[in-house]
Amino acid sequence: MSGRMEVLVIGAGIAGLGAAYALQLAGLDVIVFEAEAAVGGRMSSVQWAGKWIDRGAEFIAEKPVFDPLLRSLGLLETIQPFPGGSVAFDVWRDGEIYPLEYTNPASLMRFGAISTRSKLQGLKLLPALARQAWASRGHLFEPWRAAWFDNEQTTGTWLGRLAPELLEYAVEPTYELYCAYAPEDLSRAMFAHLTTSYVNSQLYTFPEGLGYLTRTVAGRLHVLTSTRALSVDAGSGKVVYLQEGDERRLWADYILVAVPGARVSSLVRGLDAARTHFFSQVMYTPAQLPYYDLAADPHIPSVFFPRREDDRLAALGYDRLSTDPVERVLRINLKSRHIWAMLDASDQEVLDEALFLAAQYYPQLTDLVTDAYLARWREGLPLFGPGYLRALKAFVKLPAHPRLAFAGDYLAQPSTGAAYASGLRAARQTLGQLAPDRLPYLEPFFDWSGRV
């Protein structure tokens, strides 16, 4: 490959693929580089033990955001409700289990794991949540609108003062399982933003996992897998990359960088001071998804363990597969702090440790395992600690870069819809720089404002 082209997208996750697809439909020439052998990034799926399983994200919580894309791809009839359909689970406390639908306020009021007094304490959160709901009205995936609340307090500090039991038995297990966040990882500003964004949200997936969507989009594009970008020159648009063992170069009119934000500083050279400062603050929490195939039904409940009950085990259950509710697999999730502690352990060591911890509650599990699979991500989800939303607010106000756009969930919030929306925004910036007369081609993809 040599010469010039219009747009190079680095990274074939949902953010990069979504941006590339929109730009291609707007008439630009687009090539996508993906360092891995397969597309999808943290939104990918594989076949294992005769089943489709997700390697990262497991559901879409903002279907209206994807509807224009699904319509364009002919997939509106393929998407299906996630088993259970909502953020619902059982919480373990003192040997008993209590059902909770976290995004349903009525369910929180019925939640039996916390006292009536604790529920009333939760009302102290309402003024801040109401103000944030007003600040975010009609503006999806713009957490910087919560910057007014982004001082040096974490969710743990704030809720620990106002409603400690609610923190420990509802908030902590929810964020541990779905985001691998401890309360100390999340600012109270981001908590307020997320809480007001997902009230009564419904979840969706595909029969072949969320990777079915990224594979389908990639099939409509020019994607080069096993092609790793080594460096990007912000001034000239030169990209050095590795393909088939050879180091090569090309020059692009515009580059859309859709890799985890923590990698940008080492990838892009010549960034201005303001962007360099922002990217120095982007961090991630690692994530793991362990699957175990069993010889027989172990007849155990699916439960989440608050850290006051177990500081290593986050959840376990013989759960219905999101891709096929007829099939079941054993899932054992570890607490984020324990994932950090085992970051350099082998896959087998992690699988053995998780099974050992689960067997402390249900010993029969040890003899039933016939196969196991572990998906791991050193960069699982971006962290939104104190001060991050103020930094993000400053970043999004910067003038558009003449050669670069950036996309990823670290610019929005930890969800598939947010990652995809960040790609669309990057595509809009790209098109605005290269061919502003074609911006109307992107308008149908933004036909979701106010519908989530």
Would you give an account of this structure?
The chain is an alpha/beta fold and 452 residues long. The chain has three domains: 220 residues, FAD/NAD(P)-binding domain (3-Layer(bba) Sandwich), CATH 3.50.50; 114 residues, protoporphyrinogen ix oxidase, domain 3 (Orthogonal Bundle); 99 residues, Polyamine Oxidase, Chain A, domain 2 (Alpha-Beta Complex). Helix content is 33%, strand content 24%. The strands form five sheets. Strands 1, 2, 9, 10, 11, 12, 13 and 19 form an eight-stranded mixed β-sheet that branches. Strands 15-16-17-14-18 form a five-stranded antiparallel β-sheet, sandwiched between helices. β11 and β12 form a beta hairpin. The two termini are 42 Å apart. The mean pLDDT is 93.
Overall body shape: globular
- Structural class computed from helices and strand pairing: alpha/beta
The CA-CA distance between the termini, in Å, is 42 Å
| Domain module count | 3
